[in-house]
Amino acid sequence: MGRRAWAHGFPARIDGRGPSRREMDDARCPAPAQGFCSLSGLGTLLPDSRLVLNDYAITLLAQEARVIVRDREWMGWGAGAVFSAVVLLVTVFALNGPPARALPPAAPDIVAIDSGSLHGVSAQHYRLFNGIPYAAPPVGALRWRPPAPVSPWTGIREARDAGPKCAQATGAGGLRSTDEDCLYLNVWTPRTLPADGRGLPVMVWIHGGSLQTGTGSMYGAAPLVSQPDGDSIVVTINYRLGTFGFLAASALDEGAGSGDYGLMDQQAALRWVQRNIAAFGGDPDRVTVDGESAGGISICAQMAAPSSAGLFAAAMMQSGPCAGQALPEAEAEGDAWASGAGCAGADAAACLRGLSADVLVDHAPDSANVVYGNDFLPRDPVAVLKAGGMAHVPTFIGSNHDEMALWVWIKYGNPLGAGMTAADYPNLLTTQLSGVDQAQVDRIVGEYPLGDYAQPALALTRAWTDKVVCNLVDQAGQFGRQNPTYIYEFDDRGALAPPSNFPMGAYHAAELPSLFDLAQVGWLLHGAMTPDQQRLQDEMRRYWTRFITAGSADPQGLPAIPRYSESAPAFLSFRPAGNQFSEAFAADHRCEFWSSLAR
């Protein structure tokens, strides 16, 4: 489908047969990608109604004048229209005099994609196209099935409001939702696009939330699309969550395995980007996927999924390691849950699809997991990584210095230490640190003795954080063997945080306000950034933008993060007082101890 634009700057057909709004398609628009099919795209309209043209627009008009004179007719216009066009050309030259220096044109607010036309919103520095459907609503018979193609629409669809968030319980993303019609994405672009028509690099953001909560529209990407190290386009997506997105059950198998419907949604969004991002000024060959927490876990799964090969050229994972659950175990748990919901036997699938969204939200399992062993994800992502079989793309990986402080505060630390006693410490190590036995717990208590911490909750925070971070360090080394890999740690211990008397430090997700506008969840964060934090925010955005544009971590004027390897394990610590390079990342988190514990 060709891109469509409104040619307000050109005469209408005078025979009465032309479109009343002078609609043109790609073949008839002088430069659709640059927005030159609108008056504003030709230059700057002054208050006295004079139009200041740029060089490129004048050149285009001159070229079209030659076409008109030669062919005597353009776009089906008769001789009178030809005369009008020539008069327009002569007039604008007379008003403007010699050509002025070319300026990047404002990007059009109307774009055409493979399913129809969209009308977005423009601000001073960016455009936003909200609530774009990338797959059919996964309702009724499509519940717990791979995403189906979206139905095209006629006319121009308003893309001003975000689509509904996917069904979920109340969480950081806002209030509870039971909406299953949620497969929408949002596209952020700079207000102006390159005058030479080259496509901009693209980042696709996969939100976190334990695969159970969140929405793409939470993340305002305006700060990322225009940066000193280059402009870019950001796409934020919704995907099915919780029971709707990750339930594995034998009744849903249908010969391809079950689970991972949310991952299939993510892949469908990436395929949408490949087909359509050029219409927004993006380059489909320069797509970076980025995600935090569950979003990072999802990206590792996409890097391991054979059918996602070629859909992105670089990957970023923030506080989200490779992880997964084997299909037999996941289906056994799902079958037990389905039976408890009254759905068992030969008609279990129909029964499950007949359950209301309210029931599925209110009685969802406690957790959601990436599942491997099905057609979408045949192998364990951890095993694929160890075997060197991940997508071979530049990789940017990081974590936060006090990752698990958020979870300890939520469960046991508000007010400080009130939900946890010294006697609870060994038991909580057993329940919260997966895969440790009693002998290992005794060793952990010896390595992180309560006497070293003001409260038991702080000892649990440190031990739990170090175990999680050291797993990421190990995986970073494996990525470094096969991909150009760069490592960071966010270490702002005074990061904006929910009101609390618990020392959160650089907790899980604390880096997100340094990258995005989080106005939707601003009420969760207490205080305002200091000048040093604002400087850090600016620098982090530049590192992210540089990786998106070049696949490297070397923004101009800032220290380059070297490639990470097990023999040269350098990383950059993002700190308000000044970023620091170090090779002591593993030592800071006692990774040798955790490695010995696993042996």
UniProtKB/TrEMBL annotation:
Describe the family membership recorded for this protein in Swiss-Prot or TrEMBL: Belongs to the type-B carboxylesterase/lipase family.
The regions listed as transmembrane in this protein's record are 74-95
What phylogenetic lineage does the species belong to?
A: Bacteria, Bacillati, Actinomycetota, Actinomycetes, Mycobacteriales
Top-level class of the enzyme under EC nomenclature: hydrolase
- Per the UniProt entry, the Enzyme Commission number(s) are 3.1.1.-
Keyword Transmembrane on entry: yes
Gene Ontology molecular function: hydrolase activity
* Region (Disordered), start-end ranges: 1-26
User: A Pfam family in this protein?
Assistant: COesterase
Q: Which domain of life is it from?
A: Bacteria
Signal peptide residues on this chain, from the entry's feature table: none
Name of the protein: Carboxylic ester hydrolase
Gene3D superfamilies tied to this protein: alpha/beta hydrolase
Q: Which UniProt keywords apply?
A: Hydrolase, Membrane, Transmembrane, Transmembrane helix
